[in-house]
Amino acid sequence: MFEEMKFQTGDRYPHFLSIENKGDYIKTYNFSTYCPLKTWLEKKDLFEMHLNEKIVDIKQDEANKRLVSIHVESEPLPNMLEWDDSYLRKANLFAIGRCHYGIVAMLLERDPHAFIAGETGSGKSNILKCLIHQALYKDYEVELIDFKRGVSFTEFKDRVTIHYEYTAVIKVLRDMVIETNNRLDKFRSAEVDNINDYNKAVSGNTENLKRKILFIDELAELLKTRDKEISKILTDSIETLTRLSRAVGIHLIMGIQRPDSTIVSGQIKNNVSFRICGRFVDREPSRIMLGNDMAYHLPNIKGRFMVKDDEFFETQCFYFKIDKSKNKQDTGEYQRLERPQQTTPPKPRAKRVQQARSVEPKTITANNIPQKAKLEPPKSFDTEPTEPKKQSKEFDFDFSEFKK
Description:
Low-confidence stretches: 324-383
Structural class: alpha/beta
Oligomer: single chain
Mean pLDDT: 82
Largest sheet: 11 strands, mixed
């Protein structure tokens, strides 16, 4: 392959070492080489054509720069992956989906805020629902801003406060800014710099601080208001939270269709490093969100996203569906309720039809007063139907002038 591609450094070709299976969906080809990693990445498309396999990534060993691995997809990712509570973790980890290497998760200490971008119908609200479900299990305080009146989050209407008026939204953001400053004052008094150390320092003396997560669905709809004063208040509050609230345990997870610079300020985008980006039909939104066009090359599969952490991972996000979400009154435990089983068998179809036929029909008069209607037999036809006129098949036109 290297000879056909003329891929060499001087007179040296890369030397094949081994093949390793890294999991259910990926395997690696390991090489010893003198070619720099940049040259390997430039030839990625050619490697795919020669190997006839999808290349997930090309990586260089951190300890030995001469070792390069080509990570190849051994099995395609599933098109749909249902959420299960076994993915829950005690740590401040939010499971998002599965990539070729394993479960993709968001660690709040390292990635305090997140953007979820994608076109309409790509599955952004489904990811938000999955994260809200995990936050409630961890007993975090959750607030939701959704100008669609929370129609996509009906599972959590009894557990989460949903805000969709500007007056309420401004109050929520201002309260979070005030809470951030109050917590920073407490940290200074306790001589700590994060919420975990503070809870350890005051353990047993006072109540521990809880993490707070503000979910925003369609950030552009929130910020794109014609009132300049309201827009300035909202932007300033979000900028303050993205700058200062990481250590105090207040987090923002924001869904947006297109992170345009005319809507979202550069300061907000620079302070939100964790990105979850769905497929776009053009390259520019992908470059704005990820810095490259990887989202443009994603397959058109619902729930397929590109996750940007320290690296880029093509991820099939969990499909979240829950029957009910409820806070139990006796234990305070948030749990998923199973669909109740039907105890009485349904009535046979024949009986329902017979019962329906036994009901007397009603008619509506001009005054909208229901009255009984009399059923009359259909009128008989005493007269014989007239026969339709036969169309003449004779033609008066002379065809002799036409040639065969």
